[in-house]
Design a protein that fits this description.
487 residues; alpha+beta; Arc Repressor Mutant, subunit A; Helix Hairpins; 25 helices; 7 strands; 56% helix; 8% strand
């Protein structure tokens, strides 16, 4: 579902905004503006990494004071030095010996989380998401999943009227989400949350869940609100009494249980080994192999395997991993198994997949590498036309893995990268690979020039446009690009 990138929070909740930006791996700055303050969240590839605020109480010194990390006397002294030296208050507190560098780092992360959490309490404000590069000076990376940020932020809401108005009617029924991306988020649930979650069975109404919780009504409703806001549970149609027994009997066939959600994940070392064993083979694995299933596997087996693998390779898992490269690998693996599931879960699309392998029958044989690469390339072009540049990149990457000597695939990969914020370096590297394969293709140099123009490196852009024109003096793209370098 598309969400407008500008509007008012009372019309589009902050939760929906952040989930949308996270799921679509957007990079940019989300601003909330009121007559009193402006607060911003800096987002990179869907993850909140920093925050800022014009509200005086959100300043670092005030935050440290409220957290009992410094005294009023130390705060006042640091402000005096700040007025004279114009240094940052955090650096001054360290220089004066009031904080250690480790304390300061904790304080900045605490400040960022508090600013983000406070934004969930804003009931009406103008919001705007500006897509593009974010400032990198003095910005720390907040090592916390978006799911946990949303979870903790929503938990701070204490307005009964707001919660009651935003929640579905108390006669509504909740069930566990059918979306593994929502179900297996890296959220640390409390014992009370788990108790309420155990009462969600797709049959009890909200009122019945509250009555059976042995908690206060507000406390129980708020937990439901948190679980619903974060997407762990979703609204469903109430099941008529006469079919309740039959539906209950089918629970054993469900692809996921409450225990599956609450059971701990494997250790970091085991995860990294698993990722490193799967990732290099992504381009050569069939869709059935991706889902640990055979060509004759039924729909239930495919679904169960997908849920198991979705939990194992959920993108939220990288926040506990020290190796930064694991993040992108996890994301690619998750996208690959999701793509495989979306194709194989339905009989029609499954048969289309078999036909794409050259037969209408289920068979173990796989098409040649060039056929699989061409299929990925075609899918990439389709995604690019839709404006789904991330999806296009994933497909073009697969194509280049399968056929690394195809300059065309590398060129299109570069084009898709160039449409994504912060990926010009990747676009450059892909085109340089294309140049190595086809050193006398003028279009590669012209495209490389355009990448450098976009990056603001006019001298290098000019050089590549000139190379293109030396090979083909009539190349229009290079001619226009060269003219632009002189403007």
């Amino acid at each position: 579902m598309e969400i407008p990138l500008t509007g008012r929070i009372k019309d589009v909740s902050l939760v929906k905004l952040l989930v949308f930006l996270n799921r679509n791996r957007k990079t940019g700055t989300l601003s909330l503006k009121t007559p009193v303050f402006t607060k911003k969240i800096y987002i990179h590839a869907g993850d909140a990494i920093f925050a800022s605020s014009t509200y005086e109480d959100d300043r670092l010194g005030e935050m440290l004071l409220k957290a009992d990390k410094i005294t009023v006397e130390q705060y006042d002294r640091s402000v005096e030095v700040l007025k004279i030296s114009k240094k940052r208050q955090g650096a001054i507190l360290v220089e004066l010996g009031y904080l250690t560098p480790k304390d300061l780092f904790w304080g900045v992360k605490y400040q960022v989380k508090e600013i983000i959490h406070s934004m969930f309490l804003v009931e009406d404000a103008e919001y705007e998401f500006m897509e593009g590069e974010i400032p990198n000076q003095e910005v720390i990376t907040l090592k916390m999943s978006m799911a946990n940020l949303i979870y903790d932020g929503v938990r701070k809401i204490e307005n009964w009227t707001r919660i009651r108005n935003e929640m579905p009617d108390t006669d509504s029924v909740f069930r566990l989400s059918r979306d593994p991306l929502s179900l297996f988020q890296g959220i640390e649930l409390s014992s009370q949350d788990k108790k309420i979650l155990s009462l969600i069975d797709g049959r009890r109404t909200i009122r019945e869940v509250i009555e059976n919780s042995w908690m206060g009504s507000f406390e129980a409703l708020k937990i439901l609100y948190v679980l619903w806001s974060t997407g762990i549970i979703e609204q469903t149609t109430a099941i008529p009494e006469e079919v309740a027994v039959a539906e209950h009997a089918k629970e054993q066939e469900e692809p996921v249980t409450l225990q599956d959600i609450l059971s701990p994940l494997s250790e970091e070392e085991a995860l990294v080994k698993r990722v490193d064993s799967i990732y290099p083979k992504l381009g050569s694995l069939s869709m059935y192999e991706l889902l640990d299933a055979g060509p004759d596997a039924d729909a239930d087996t495919i679904k169960r395997n997908y849920y198991r693998l979705a939990k194992e390779f959920h993108p939220d898992r990288y926040f506990a991993v020290t190796d930064e490269s694991v993040k992108s690998k996890l994301t690619e693996i998750f996208d690959a198994i999701t793509q495989a599931y979306n194709v194989l879960k339905d009989e029609k699309t499954r048969e289309e997949y078999f036909r794409s392998l050259g037969t209408g029958k289920r068979r173990e044989a796989e098409p040649a590498e060039d056929v699989k690469a061409e299929d990925q390339f075609r899918r990439g072009v389709e995604e690019f036309k839709k404006g789904n540049f991330w999806g296009a990149v994933e497909n073009f990457k697969w194509a280049t893995k399968l056929m690394p000597r195809s300059a065309q695939y590398w060129s299109h990969l570069s084009l898709a990268f160039s449409k994504m914020p912060g990926r010009l370096k990747d676009a450059e590297e892909a085109l340089l690979t294309a140049v190595k394969i086809e050193p006398f293709n003028p279009d590669h140099y012209a495209n490389l020039g355009l990448v450098y123009m976009k990056a603001g490196i006019k001298k290098r852009a000019c050089s590549n446009f000139e190379k293109a024109l030396r090979i083909d003096p009539s190349n229009e793209k290079a001619k226009k690009g060269l003219e632009q370098t002189k403007e």
